Amino acid sequence: MKLMKFKRVAVTVLIVLAAYLLQCTLFNHLELAGIKPNLILIVTASFGFMRGQKEGMLVGFFAGLITDIQFGTILGFYALLYLVIGFVNGLFEQLYFDEDIKLPLFLISVSEFLYGIIIYLLMFMLRSDFNFLYYLNRIIVPELIYTIVITLGLYPLILFINHKLEAEEKRSASKFV
Fold it and tell me: What pLDDT is attached to residue 147?
């Protein structure tokens, strides 16, 4: 049982690190008009609604902490932001069905949009940059669209890995019963 829990934690860490590394390396070269998708947000939201609030918060916190260390000017800003995203998406665990992609796409879209709004409010507006429509049209909406397109490819992979881990956990649990 502890081996399965360790395996789930190890796989989750690998997924977060892979998303972070892809976002920092490969997707830097796949920018479209200076916009790149937010893979960390996709992973955090996915773990939130697939596994619940607690796991969504943990994944969000550590993914945000990695982002803070690399890019942030304030340690803990992105960690708190992704933690909240993981928690809010975890609230929808009871409504989530594996077969239906509409809810994950909707939740990731809303998370990305609110992420952009919060970044604008806390990073730009506080510096007296009040050109919200420019930021909305040039950054928030294009990043939202690019993230949705990447979600269509990345989400099924995360879902497949989650199914494999859950199947293995059920087999392991049935041995002890």
Answer: 94
| DSSP assignment letter at 24 | H
Domain residues for the domain of 113 are 2-92+99-170
Give me the pLDDT at residue 176, please.
Answer: 59
Positions in the chain short of pLDDT 70: 1, 173-177
- Is this structure's pTM higher than 0.85? yes
Its sign, for the CA torsion 44, 129, 149, 100, is positive
> Does residue 76 sit within a domain?
yes
* 72-79: Cβ within 8 A, 24+ apart: 77/122
- Asked if residues 148 and 108 have their Cβ atoms less than 8 Å apart, the reply is yes
- What per-residue confidence (pLDDT) applies to 60? 96
C-alpha dihedral, 38 to 74 to 13 to 174, nearest 10°: -100
CATH number where 164 lies: 1.10.1760
In angstroms, the CA 76 to CA 159 distance is 28
Looking at the domain assignment, is residue 38 inside a domain? Answer: yes
What does 31-96 look like in DSSP terms, one character per residue?
Answer: -BTTB---HHHHHHHHHHHHH-HHHHHHHHHHHHHHHHHHT-SSTTHHHHHHHHHHHHHHTTGGG-
pLDDT at residue 1 in the model: 61
C-alpha 145/C-alpha 139 separation (Å) is: 10
Q: Which amino acid is at 30?
A: L
